[in-house]
Specification:
mainly alpha, Tetracycline Repressor, domain 2
Amino acid sequence: MNRKEQAAASRAELLEAARQCFTQLGYEGTTVAGILDRAGMARGALYHYFPGGKAEIFTAVFDMINEAFHQRRDALWSLPTPLARLRAGVAVFLELCTQDDFARIALTDAPQVVPGENERGSSYALLREQVIEAVELGEMQPLDIEVTAMALYGAVRSAGEFVIGAADRHAAVTAATRTLNSLIDGLAVAAAGQGAPKTPSKSVPALTTDDG
């Protein structure tokens, strides 16, 4: 292993140690010393790779988890309609909420630590885009776009918080999915008896961490 490969491996080890610490102890409960102890490295190692210390390595861990979320979200592009992508996106998001690292790092601590993560970001923008497309295709009732997008976004985020706080997260996912699908059904044109949707164009699926 050359020096570049060794550096990459050391950085990856630090990130994994930090991910475990942040998942188990949260941002406030985690220390640089604790991360280094778990990684089995000297104190200078973390600041060599992450000069900003705990805040910088937390952001790096968050980015790693968020990227995995984006990959799963983007895999939904092939679904044929905006509402199909929305339903599938909700299912993916709620399933991720059962995972301790996603729940603690991406949804609980990142909004307080990572700049901009306490605001609606690209996930909201994508969801809003799906609502616009669904309305234009006649798949969703032509209600106020902003209100509809905000209502859906808030409902999905709140359902995620419900899952995270549940003693049985998988049972909570089942309950939350049923409720959110009923909400989407209420917005769909078919539920209002207004006819069948048109053939859609491809669009980015909507989901919510908030990364963006």
